[in-house]
Write a structure and sequence with these properties.
The complex is a heterotrimer of chains A (about 650), B (about 240) and C (about 270). Chain A is an alpha/beta fold and about 650 residues long. In chain A, about 40% of the residues lie in helices and about 15% in strands. In chain B, helix 2 packs across helix 8, helix 2 packs parallel to helix 9 and helix 8 packs antiparallel against helix 9. The chains are: A alpha/beta (about 650), B mainly alpha (about 240), C alpha+beta (about 270). Chains in contact: A-C, B-C.
């Protein structure tokens, strides 16, 4: 049976759709607001801002996070900045241009109306954050400073040193803590969400596990918001945090929420390469380095193990400058990443593993002096030195692409509601806004737009619309809670019980999964590779079910948490392979080797694939069903992205 | 307004009291040392004159002394409270804690303010008993200053400091004073929040100067007297 | 060149703190680890140790980490008696095995403070920091639309100073390193950030009074100005912030126009 995917885009011209939504939405009387409760899972930019905003409106909010504190969410690690169409530099920016850049950057695979609303909200985000005391960089005039970022020809990025994500998150966190102090938000730290509870077709609660005590708990509410981030950790090695995972949105998916575009993954070109099989986490080196660094590999394979400074210029291949003369070293992320993979596949990669390219500052240092380079990138150079024990002022950095962000996520309509009524998804957890590739400095913008400026309206609209049903309160003793809790318990008990007999640790299976997904659903995907991936993941799933080695008890046990997450990631990996297999075109971060131009660039197929793929879960081991939401472009013309 | 009782029982409030009383005590020490410089005059007249003038203040002197005693008491009581709260805040200690250096002001002296303080407290009791409540005019310690009979405090001092054990006791105690002031002086400014990045370093450096001046200013007195008087006294 | 250091390995002996639960008695457990690559991060070394423990059928060592790039403030180990280990300006996750020598015995302990009780092994409960933050670490601004961001001009130097204080990652190393287990550096960083900025003025007095009150209630010790916190702070936050907090607190406490209003959220001047 096909599911009707109605994005629910309001009537009217693009620029008035959001206003129209607000004009027609249902409201909730201020005195009635306290009768409603909303669960918000996750406390990153989207979750913390949503929880604070909803609480300020008057709803009773319950906020959940896996850490000790809401402040540890992974939004904290975002470095570069946040885009906003403020046009303070007077350089031709506008809401339209931010919208257009984002649609184009996403390779025409995002919904117009959502992206336009994002661009509209962007300016309010900056105003809001400044009012919270976020210490953005300033000019001597006292005005806010801007810088430019990839994929744009204007300076619209606001930043707080290299810690923009941290400062924005602490701003949202402080708002959240204010509401906790007022008693409007109840915090539930140390909780991992393990299921969504559906009562009479509506999301009415969640099941959580207290990771410190192991207690399984039931929480009821009138609406549930998932703001639990992306699933880059399916690759095992990524720039995501150790505790980032797919579990919350995957469990919602298992309950019936469709999963949109799982194969859209962003691979960031400048990360510190993997240096051993013990590694657990990769570190990003800011995109800004490519302003002065030149990317190259040796022309001859036999030079790859030589000291790079001994290789003369004529034996170096500055391949980005060669292939993309007009953008050169600043080619967009997806394109630069793929180019690095190509040269390494040719056997011209450098370093111990042969999986790295040089990012060389020799010429910049010669031109501007070491002091100037230190001034610009000192902290990044120090970080590189600290990790690799090599001095990048003397020898070139070695970099390689790594998984950084996932554009896919739970399918949501214009109101950020999933296909399960009353279940909303925000931030990286949903699939919206970035299409097949995200531009730099747009993730922070989206998280805060969703939390501060969209959910407060759309959740209200939902509560107002379903007031009659929702005012009949559901209690945690309802049969639906009972059975959901039972399933969760059974799964944990099974893992602990099976874990006594097996031989393979969680990390071992996880690492294998990461390798399969990276090799076959990474920067280049082929039909054959994807089919192999499906088979290999199935084998790993079997390993997990029958040969898992798990020690410790059901109280604080990181390994048990990881096992539960791995279980979901294994299923997700298979879904990504299927999605990539079905999308027989190349677009943004999704590159199918069968679909490329004669000179090796991504070849889109707008006729057959200008749609969102939304997958329906059919049970463990069952083949999921693919649904489509057609993407309608009324305001921009689909064109080929060229950076030559 | 916050009730004073709460203000001064807070962790910050206690440090205000520590800092303020500490500063008052440093001021007292400076005045005390200046007064004691009369001992270097070689004869008792300067010292006895100074002492006589102080005593001429009458009730005002008593008030000052009571004030001083209360300040010291406050300093001591707060110090024990701070130390107790610190111990309570870390019931289980590290296997072996080690400083990371850098800007740290952790040193044997700064970590052991309570112990240098205890030594100074003991010293104070002895010192006050010995000189403030020592031999009086009734005991025959009189001298004539400009024809007036006064208390010969100079003789009390000389009698003490011509004995090696007292010299050693005083010199030793003053070394503890030095360590106490090395951290205490700068710390008082920090505790009261009357410091800024520009002045922090100079004030900390000044702490060393103050510590050295006061400690050595005081400890040379017994040495000087021992050196100049004990030989003469025996002759 | 690069390969030389990459393949270099050392053998180490670990003394790690094991504690079953908050109430249980803790103890040091010894492990030997051979062939540790010097380019491994410290936490990756512990990952390897845990694989070894799991394979022997025992309960793995619990320790916290998340971003592993020094910004989330989750990792929290006292290594060789030093909060976050021997390297200044770094978190535990930014510590590398090349810092240690072959044959070295490395002692690993949790943050030790009454206000940070051990949950298990090396994991402590740092929610006390959240409660301090809750007591006033925010501006009163509501969420939603606001005046244009450039309507408030903030001198660059002031914005930079506020940012210096705002860089705190809330890891608790200041408490761990302080001989008194004082939370002054953490609390003062937030007080200072908001006291400096125009956005923080409206509730400036109430904020410092309430945050200090909460800090005291949590059972942290008082500051003895040893500056151990600054030395251990991975973001090198200055104790100048503590001096500012002391001024702020005194001024607020003595201010005639400040009506404590501690109980109600709408109180204050």
């Amino acid at each position: 049976m096909s599911i009707e995917l109605n994005p629910g885009i309001p009537e009217g011209p693009l620029s008035q759709k959001w206003d129209n939504y607000k004009a027609n939405m249902k409201l909730v009387n201020p005195a009635n607001k306290r009768k409603y409760s909303v669960i918000v899972v996750g406390t990153g930019l989207a979750g913390a801002s949503a929880a604070a905003s909803l609480a300020e409106l008057g709803y009773e909010v319950k906020s959940f996070c896996t850490h000790d504190s809401a402040r540890r969410a992974h939004s904290i690690a975002a470095q570069g900045g946040i885009n906003a169409a403020k046009s303070y530099p007077n350089d031709g920016d506008s809401v339209w241009r931010l919208f257009y850049d984002t649609i184009k950057g996403g390779d025409y695979r995002a919904r117009e109306a959502n992206v336009y609303r994002l661009a509209q909200n962007s300016t309010s985000i900056i105003d809001q954050c400044v009012s919270q005391g976020v210490p953005f960089a300033r000019e001597y005039s006292g005005e806010l400073a801007n810088r430019s970022f990839g994929g744009a020809q204007v300076s619209r990025t606001f930043y707080a040193r290299g810690q923009t994500g941290q400062q924005l998150l602490l701003g949202a966190y402080s708002q959240l803590m204010k509401e906790v102090d007022k008693g409007k938000v109840t915090l539930f730290p140390y909780r991992e969400m393990l299921d969504v509870v559906m009562v009479d077709g509506k999301a009415r609660g969640i099941i959580t596990r207290n990771v410190t005590t192991g207690e399984i708990e039931r929480h009821a509410a009138d609406a549930v918001v998932l703001a639990t981030g992306g699933y880059g950790r399916v690759y095992f090695l990524s720039t995501n945090a150790m505790n980032s995972n797919v579990t919350a949105i995957w469990r919602a998916h298992r309950r019936g929420a469709l999963f949109g575009n799982p194969c859209y993954v962003q691979i960031h070109p400048t990360c510190i390469p993997v240096s051993g099989n013990y590694q657990a986490k990769l570190t990003l080196m800011s995109e800004s380095l490519r302003n002065d660094g030149r990317v190259w590999v040796p022309k001859k394979k036999e030079d790859c193990k030589k000291d790079p400074s001994s290789i003369p210029d004529e034996d170096r291949d500055y391949y980005l400058e060669r292939k993309y003369p007009s953008f050169g070293n600043l080619a967009p992320r997806d394109i630069s990443s793929r180019a690095a993979k190509e040269v390494c596949d040719e056997g011209r990669g450098v370093g111990e593993s042969g999986l790295a390219v040089y990012l060389d500052f020799r010429d910049a240092i010669k031109r501007d002096g070491e002091a100037a380079i230190r001034e610009r990138y000192g902290n990044l150079f120090d970080m590189y030195h600290e990790i690799t024990n090599e001095n990048p002022y003397r020898s070139p950095m070695r970099i390689y692409p790594a998984v950084h962000y996932t554009m896919g996520g739970l399918w949501v309509d214009y109101s950020l509601q999933t296909t399960l009524p009353g279940l909303f998804a925000a931030g990286e957890a949903n699939f919206s806004d970035h299409g097949a590739n995200r531009l730099g400095a747009s993730a922070l913008m989206q998280g805060l737009s969703d939390g501060y400026f969209i959910l407060p309206y759309t959740v209200t609209n939902y509560l107002g619309t379903h007031a009659q049903d929702l005012l009949k309160k559901v209690d945690v003793n309802h049969a639906a809670f009972e059975s959901a809790e039972k399933e969760v318990r059974a799964e944990i008990d099974r893992m602990l019980e099976n874990g006594k007999k097996g031989k393979r640790t969680v990390t071992e299976i996880y690492r294998d999964l990461g390798k399969v997904v990276w090799d076959k659903i990474g920067m280049a995907r082929s039909e054959q590779g994807l089919k192999e991936a499906l088979a290999e993941i199935e084998k790993l799933q079997k390993d997990f079910d029958t040969d898992l080695l798990l020690t410790g008890d059901s109280k604080l046990n990181k390994n048990l948490e990881m096992a539960g997450r791995l279980r979901d990631l294994l299923e997700l990996g298979a879904l990504m392979a299927r999605d990539a297999l079905e999308r027989k075109e190349s677009c943004g971060g999704h590159f199918r080797v069968e679909s490329q131009t004669p000179d090796g660039e991504a070849q889109r197929d707008d006729e057959n694939f200008a749609h969102v793929a939304a997958w329906e879960y059919k049970g463990k081991g069952q083949v999921p069903v693919r649904h489509q939401e057609k993407l309608v472009y009324e305001n921009v013309k689909l064109s080929v992205r060229s950076y030559k | 307004m916050v009730p004073l009782s709460r203000l001064f029982s807070s962790t910050l409030g206690r440090k205000y009291l520590m800092g303020a009383s500490g500063m008052a005590l440093v001021l007292f020490l400076v005045v005390h040392l200046l007064g004691n410089l009369t001992l270097y005059a070689g004869s008792g007249e300067a010292m006895n004159t100074y002492a006589a003038r102080l005593h001429a203040l009458g009730p005002a002197l008593i008030a000052l002394e009571v004030g001083l005693a209360l300040t010291i008491l406050l300093h001591i009581v707060t110090a024990f409270q701070v130390t107790y709260s610190a111990k309570a805040a870390r019931p289980i200690d590290y296997d072996h804690a080690k400083t990371k250096g850098g800007p740290s002001k952790s040193s044997v002296g700064s970590r052991n303010m309570i112990w240098t303080g205890v030594v100074l407290g003991v010293f104070l009791i002895v010192h006050v008993a010995q000189f403030r409540f020592g031999p009086t005019m009734e005991d025959g310690y009189t001298a004539s200053v400009s024809g007036v009979m006064v208390h010969d405090i100079y003789r009390v001092v000389v009698e003490a400091f011509t004995q090696l054990k007292w010299v050693a006791f005083y010199v030793g105690s003053m070394l503890f004073l030095g360590f106490h002031l090395r951290h205490g002086y700068w710390s008082a400014f920090q505790s009261l929040g009357i410091i800024n990045p520009r002045w922090s370093k100079p004030i900390h450096a000044m702490g060393l100067v103050i510590a050295l001046l006061l400690a050595f200013g005081f400890l040379f007195i017994p040495i000087y007297i021992f050196a100049t008087q004990s030989g003469g006294g025996n002759a | 060149m690069m390969s030389a250091s990459q393949s270099k390995t050392i053998n180490i002996r670990l003394r790690v703190w094991r504690q079953e639960s908050r109430e249980a008695q803790g103890f040091f457990e010894e492990h030997e680890l051979k062939g540790v690559l010097v380019d491994m991060s410290f936490l990756e070394m512990l990952d390897v140790l845990n694989e070894q423990i799991i394979k022997s059928g025992k309960r793995p060592l619990e320790f916290e980490s998340d971003c592993r790039e020094g910004i989330c403030g989750t990792c929290s180990l006292v290594v060789q008696g030093q909060a976050h280990g021997p390297v200044r300006g770094a978190t535990t996750c930014q510590l590398y095995m090349r810092t240690f020598t072959d044959g070295e015995t490395i002692t690993i302990e949790p943050w030790r403070a009454k206000a940070f009780p051990v949950i298990r092994d090396l994991v402590t409960d740092r929610r006390a920091f959240d409660r301090i933050q809750m007591a006033g670490g925010y501006t009163g601004a509501k969420t939603g639309p606001h005046a244009d961001a450039n309507a408030i001009l903030i001198p660059k130097d002031l914005a930079d100073r506020a940012m210096d204080a705002a860089a705190c990652i809330g890891c608790g190393a200041c408490v761990a390193a302080c001989p008194n287990a004082s939370a002054s550096l953490f609390t003062s960083a937030k007080v200072t950030q908001l006291a400096l900025l125009p956005q923080g003025q409206a509730d400036r007095k109430r904020r410092v009074i309430r945050m200090v009150d909460q800090m005291d209630k949590e059972g942290f010790g008082s500051c003895s100005n040893l500056q151990e916190c600054e030395a251990a702070c991975p973001k090198k936050i200055s104790i100048q912030n503590i001096a500012i907090m002391k001024q702020e607190y005194l001024k607020a406490a003595l201010a005639a126009d400040f009506r404590a209003g501690m109980g109600s959220a709408d109180g204050g001047a």
